[in-house]
Amino acid sequence: MKKIITTSLLLLCVLFSFAQATLNVTAEQSEHFWVYVNGALQNEFASQSVTSNLAPGECSITVTMDNSERSTITSNVTLQQGRNNYIVSYQPQTSSIFFRSAAEDAKAAGAMIGAFGQMVHQMNEMYEADVNRPVGGNPPHGNPHPGHPQPGNPGTPPPPPGAHGPVPCPPSEFMEIKQLVRSADFENDKMNIAKQATSAHYFYVDQIADIARLFDFEHNKLEYVKFAYDYCIDRNLYYKLNGIFEFSSSKDELNDFINSRR
Fold it and tell me: What is the pTM (predicted TM-score) of this model?
């Protein structure tokens, strides 16, 4: 009797999994974006790839790019059971954004090489990677459509320091951020936490140095201080960060980066 019940539960789980539609939206290059399905935000932080489990059927998908224009495109699609792979591409020269099915790309490629079935399989594998928690600004909550701005939107990343005067991160909150980064087990997790926290605050050079020292590897320290440049209050003192590096090559790369941003 127990065996029959267990088998029935397993069959129900299998049937339920097949009844779902998995939506996977991936950037063609290195763009970060947010995805809304029927107006519901699917990823809290701007990502290069977004995966959601949804009910099959028709839905409205809106993609908003993580750029200054908040470029947006909306498409009505029909989700099928199983994987539904889509590609987002953005051309900054013309501020154009494109949203297309990966299956259509696979069909075109298959026709060109005369192996339709094999190419479809290869293209599906290409876009079946799971979501990587990205970095970038916070999402424009509840307002994915440009042309209808929301003043004081808390999801908009802070602008570069300017005439209005940036507000530095409070010391108590900064200590919490350091503790979160320090407690992460892996370098990748440390980087994600550090970037997410930095993109929502303004830091002094000394604070950026404190966070960078929490990384074990020099190349990760360099990656972080480059990212934090846009969120630094006293950028004129950025040269002080040379002191956290051991290798001259890292110092040279940092100085080249600073010169390129002036």
Answer: 0.40
